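Database export, one record per block. Field names are fixed; values are copied verbatim from the stored entry.
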Amino acid sequence: MDAVPLIEITRRALAHSEEAADVVTEAWQAQALAEAVGVHLAMTGPPEVRAQAGGLREASGRACGSLRGPGQRSDGARAAHLTEMSDPLSALHELGDLLGEAGGALVRVAVDAEEEGLYWRCIEGIDAADECGDRVTAILRRLALRPRPFRRAPPMGGAGARPVDEGVGEGEAAAPVCEDGLPVREGA
């Protein structure tokens, strides 16, 4: 299953969690997803982000351990269904949002916690959500620095029309442009 729908399912489940145990479980699910995304990017992502993705995997793996409750099995994680990331940028943005929401939900549980063990699990989960969110942001920054592939601009004026650029003669290709449609600068 693709990462974005899994993240959305977890966001909805977290939003509908009312009991402390359910909030902690959904925060654990969020960390398990972060770990799976980290593993996926470390193995298949661009070389520039593989080390940072490995760091996300490690940090979220530690968080899963601290959030896992007594008797909670790791094979119940939605993240086990992650098979692809068709849109890594969207998945990372959504994951960052989910981690922020999980941290906020854990703060609310920690404030009301009467049991010391639950309180400390929440505190560790809050720290982990923050650390993993920072790692997701670092990966997004690194991806933003990657050079964009360029494509050739289509001829102006529709199909079969000649290019209107004076610098483009008969049989010559139009100037290359970035994905956002802006021309590629010489020497860039």
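Remark 1: The first helix runs from residue 3 to 15.
Remark 2: The beta strands are 150-152, 176-178.
End of record.
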